[in-house]
Amino acid sequence: AEKKVINFGAGPAKLPEEVMLEVQKNLVHYGNSGISVMEMSHRSADYSNINDQAQQSIRDLLNVPQNYKIIFLQGGGTGLFAAVALNLMGRTGSADYLVTGSWSAKAAKEAAKYGKVNLVFPKVDKYTEIPPASTWKFSSDASYVYYCDNETVHGIEFPEIPDTKGVPLVADMSSNFLSRKFDITKFGVVFAGAQKNVGPAGVTVVIVREDLLGSPLPVCPIILDFTINAKDNSLHNTPPCFAIYVMSRVFEWIKRKGGVSAMESAAQKKSKLLYDFIDSSNGFYTSTVKPAYRSHMNAPFRIGGNGAGDETLEAAFLKGAAANGMIQLKGHRLVGGIRASIYNAVTLEETETLIKYMKTFLEQNK
Ligand code: PMP
């Protein structure tokens, strides 16, 4: 029999069940094609429709104007760490980075291979907040300013879009893409690896403003070249067709559910329930992030140990959670403890089930 579990994984993460069933239904024979999307030419009319539809859905869901290109690349979020620098660093040879967690730190390190990287604020010891904007120092000649909108490991999300005074802004939205509304016209580039909120691993969505195309560094590999891949409509080489197909189905699901604003209110509701419960536990559970910067998608927390985390208790918590069908709750090895990822596909009921278990565990162990 089917084993029912609740998946709180950080990525690859839960996809909507409706989408999984639809994909299953069309897995072997897609439409009238007689073959699977996995088996069809990326030059076929069927695939061309999938590709165009996926792009159009992003345009519709986020109101992306025509002066932005939408492209699908491979290489994951990590590939984009390099791609951003390879495509944008050329103008001045330097870029500004806001480092607020491990993913933006990795992006800065990768970019430093291709140009000069300035840190907008000094490296912090522990990622628990975002230093106030009044302390930020942008350089005068940055080609772009880079930040990570939602740090998946540390659970830090920007409450507001950074103001760069006109310098092109680049955002990694891998773990909160389509979970809240944003004004794309404030950005030069937004990118997101699909495997959290929008699909399976294998495809990275890139939204890039047209005027930033055309000046990649000469060493930029073709597969990471925004200009060529935009011109060729993400069909320069074989794309991850199946991942893009599944992603296009997730976009339809988001539309059926009421669009990005519906995702946003659900995320606010789920995360508020979770953090409010953590904060009301008299220090048994502790959030590792200052309230204003807490992620609506990834909630890392510790159990016991006066806020530092008692590893024995945390192991018992994970074991009990698994016994109750709740999985992938272990915190990232960099921070330890527990991390509950409550992406778009994780329902309010599932979040409530987790909180109920947390209550019981508290009663039994306080
Ligand atoms: N950026 C963020 C915010 C992430 O959470 C991750 C991890 N999935 C990455 C980048 C790296 O993505 P990938 O594993 O696809 O290279």
From TrEMBL:
Which catalytic reaction applies to this protein?
A: O-phospho-L-serine + 2-oxoglutarate = 3-phosphooxypyruvate + L-glutamate; 4-(phosphooxy)-L-threonine + 2-oxoglutarate = (R)-3-hydroxy-2-oxo-4-phosphooxybutanoate + L-glutamate
Could you tell me which CDD domains the record lists for this protein? PSAT_like
Q: Which parts form a coiled-coil structure per UniProt?
A: none
**What is the E.C. number?**
2.6.1.52
Give cofactor(s), names only.
pyridoxal 5'-phosphate
Q: In which pathway does it act?
A: Amino-acid biosynthesis; L-serine biosynthesis; L-serine from 3-phospho-D-glycerate: step 2/3
Q: Which GO terms describe its cellular component?
A: cytoplasm
The record, for SUPFAM superfamilies, names:
PLP-dependent transferases
Which keywords does this chain's UniProt record carry? Amino-acid biosynthesis, Aminotransferase, Pyridoxal phosphate, Serine biosynthesis, Transferase
* EC category name: transferase
All copies of the Aminotransferase class V domain together span 6-354
The GO terms this record gives for MF are: O-phospho-L-serine:2-oxoglutarate aminotransferase activity; pyridoxal phosphate binding
Q: Does the keyword Ribosomal protein apply?
A: no
Domain of life from the UniProt record: Eukaryota
Which terms does the UniProt entry file under GO BP?
A: L-serine biosynthetic process
Family, per entry: Belongs to the class-V pyridoxal-phosphate-dependent aminotransferase family. SerC subfamily.
What is the name attached to this protein's record? Phosphoserine aminotransferase
Q: Please name the source species.
A: Frankliniella occidentalis
Q: Which taxonomic lineage does the organism of this UniProt entry have?
A: Eukaryota, Metazoa, Ecdysozoa, Arthropoda, Hexapoda
Q: Gene symbol? A: LOC113205340
